[in-house]
Specification:
CATH class of the largest domain: Mainly Alpha
InterPro entries: AAA+_ATPase, ABC1_TM_dom, ABC_transporter-like_ATP-bd, ABC_transporter-like_CS, Type_1_exporter
GO cellular component, one term: membrane
Largest sheet: 4 strands, antiparallel
Shape: elongated
Order of helices and strands: EEHHHHHHHHHHHHHEEHEEHEEHHHEHEH
Distance between the termini: 127 Å
CATH topology of the largest domain: ABC transporter transmembrane region fold
Protein name: ABC transmembrane type-1 domain-containing protein
Oligomer: single chain
Structural class: alpha+beta
GO molecular function: ABC-type oligopeptide transporter activity; ATP binding; ATP hydrolysis activity
CATH superfamily of the largest domain: ABC transporter type 1, transmembrane domain
CATH architecture of the largest domain: Up-down Bundle
Organism: Zizania palustris (Northern wild rice)
Number of domains: 3
Radius of gyration: 40 Å
Strand content: 5-15%
Number of helices: 20
């Protein structure tokens, strides 16, 4: 008889043999065995499920490990430098474009072309040193094996070896000296041209670029660029000559061995090109992150009093450390890539030695080579591989320099401000009649935000005009347009009925005295700060007179060295800086005097005195 009992979700089937005697109709299947079997099956299923679950977890862990391993292997995602990692806000108008080693070298050559004789002497010395050094392994092996045959040949080879070493030392010294001088010339000219290009830009350029970014270009980037001629190109050329000479010698000795060595060098060169491209891209990221870190440091140090008052030292440290972490991450990948390059070199270098010994030994046993020839071959094979490695090592450094040069040359290529590059009219006398005719303006960095719209204003000579308005209503913008720091979007400004855009801007600015809301002082003595920008030679008495008119003479004389005291923004109060700036403006004896809240930091007595003397 077959009975089936179902309980819950578990089904249990029992097979019971029929007895000889009939069973009573009230026979039931016992419950206890059913529960025990069900519990046993559940436990077994749980155990099996646990085994499969643990196996699945182990498989997942193994898959994760394999994926991580795949990411860090060459070509994996860990090595990728995504564009999203670039520095925040670090583009502006000076965004870099692609650059090749040839174009970068061409630009650098134009910077040192006036002193080309230094480079030519350096290359001539390089050729002499390379030719002398390439003969040393041949004479070294010949000297060793000639000692077995007699002293005369040995001493002759030894003398030639000494002479070659002396020539090599002299030429190498001249080479290093000339390329070192070329290196200094290049970094000096690069910084001069770059700084001149930066100074000749419109003010709108400085609204988009940051101080830290520009100083980073002038500092570390120019220094990196200067390595190209004095270091990278120098060593690449030397090792290229030595490598070609070694290869020719190897092919003459034994072309089968030479071809094997050449194949190894070709493999090394392929790795070199891949590594060089990676280093070039990584160098651009390192350049951006360094500039961003400099931006933060420059900003925090400049505003250190605000940082200290608001207790945000930890926040600023984290902001600075964020860029350092990004820089570390890129530098770490560069270091690991360099480690892979060195690993390839060592592997291929020792492989060449093993192949040379095996094939060379067989050739000696067959009488095709002598022991002396094999020794020379091994020496030149090592020379060739090491030359290839040095070329690759300096090629990666060259690519880093090319990557760093892109933004430097991009800044150099920016067109100068049209104001400074063109000449205009010079009036016989500046009367000072100023007219704003339907002037509209929006800042270039915010073209959709109108600041002025159809402004019409006329200012006459020999009158004092005060502009009053809400903060942000455009008072300082009107002044900036008069100083021609910006050009109107629409309309025009007339000075003595002549459009301001047609006047010689240098001539016009020499006849204007200007004091801004927050005057800044240069780190120089007080007298030099007052004389700053004056278009004529002035005596010390004139400087003192301007200081007295600005109510600054008394506090200047109380300084340790009087007018010879070195000052800057951090050493004087706001009112003292304003009075020195007013003295600077008055010393020019300007036809137009513009004061943009220039007395906001003065006390009532000082302000009254300055207004009386300057009016």
């Amino acid at each position: 008889m077959l009975l089936t009992a179902a309980t819950g979700s578990a089904a249990l089937s029992l097979s019971v043999a029929a007895a000889a005697a009939p069973r009573p109709p009230s026979l039931r299947v016992p419950r206890r065995p059913t529960r025990r079997l069900r519990t046993t099956r559940i436990r077994a299923a749980a155990a099996i499920g646990g085994e499969f679950g643990g196996l699945g977890q182990r498989r997942a862990d193994a898959g994760e490990f394999i994926e991580r391993l795949r990411n860090v292997l060459p070509g994996g995602s860990w090595w990728r430098l995504e564009d999203g990692e670039e520095a925040e806000g670090g583009g502006g108008r000076a965004e870099a474009s692609g650059s090749t080693a040839a174009s970068a070298l061409s630009r650098m050559w134009t910077l040192v072309a006036s002193d080309r004789w230094v480079v030519f002497i350096g290359f001539a010395s390089l050729v002499g040193a390379a030719l002398a050094e390439i003969a040393i392994p041949h004479l070294l092996a010949a000297s060793i094996f000639s000692a077995q045959n007699g002293g005369a040949v040995f001493y002759r080879n030894a003398k030639l070896l000494v002479v070659l070493c002396l020539f090599s030392g002299v030429f190498s010294g001249a080479r290093s000296c000339c390329f070192g001088v070329a290196n200094m010339i290049l970094v000096k000219r690069t910084r001069e041209v770059l700084f001149d290009s930066i100074l000749s830009q419109d003010i709108a350029f400085f609204d988009e670029e940051t101080v830290g970014d520009l100083t980073s270009r002038l500092g570390s980037d120019c220094q990196q660029v200067s390595r190209v001629i004095g270091n990278d190109l120098n060593l690449i050329s030397r090792n290229l000559l030595q490598g070609v000479g070694a290869l020719i010698y190897l092919l003459i000795l034994s072309w089968p061995l030479g071809m094997c060595t050449m194949l190894i060098c070709a493999t090394l060169s392929t790795i070199m090109l891949v590594h060089g491209r990676y280093q070039k891209r990584a160098a651009k990221f390192a350049q951006e992150f360094t500039a961003s870190a400099n931006n933060v440091a420059q900003e925090v140090i400049t505003l250190v009093r605000t940082v200290r008052v608001y207790g945000t030292e930890k926040q600023e440290f984290k902001r600075y450390a964020k860029w350092l972490d990004k820089l570390y991450d890129v530098s770490f990948r560069q270091t690991m890539a360099y480690g892979g390059w060195s690993l390839s070199l060592n592997y291929l270098y020792h492989s060449a030695q093993v192949i040379a010994v095996l094939i060379g030994g067989i050739s000696i046993m067959s009488g095709k080579l002598t022991a002396e020839q094999l020794t020379k071959f091994i020496l030149y094979a090592e020379w060739l591989i090491l030359s290839t490695w040095w070329i690759g090592d300096n090629w990666s450094s060259l690519m880093q320099s090319v990557g760093a040069s892109e933004k430097v040359f991009r800044l150099m290529d920016l067109l100068p401000s049209r104001q400074l590059s063109s000449t205009g009219l010079k009036l016989q006398k500046l009367e000072g009649r100023i007219q704003y005719a339907d002037v509209a303006f929006s800042y270039p960095s915010r073209p959709t935000v109108p600041i002025l719209g159809r402004l019409n204003l006329t200012l006459y000579p020999n009158e004092i005009v005060a502009m009053v308005g809400l903060s942000g209503s455009g008072k300082s913008t009107i002044v900036n347009l008069l100083l021609r720091l910006y050009e109107p979007t629409n309309g025009k400004i007339l000075v003595d009925d002549v459009p301001l855009s047609e006047l010689d801007i240098r001539w016009f600015r020499e006849r204007i005295g200007f004091v801004g809301q927050e005057p800044r002082l240069f780190r120089m003595d007080v007298s030099s700060n007052i004389r700053y920008g004056c278009p004529r030679e002035v005596s010390h008495k004139e400087v003192e007179l301007a200081a007295k008119q600005a109510y600054a003479h008394d506090f200047i004389m109380s300084l340790p060295d009087g007018y010879n005291t070195t000052v800057d923004d951090a050493l004087l109060s706001g009112g003292q800086k304003q009075r020195i700036a007013i003295a600077r403006a008055l010393l020019r004896d300007p036809a137009i005097l513009v004061l943009d809240e220039a007395t906001s930091a003065l006390d009532a007595e000082s302000e009254h005195y300055v207004k009386v003397t300057s009016s």
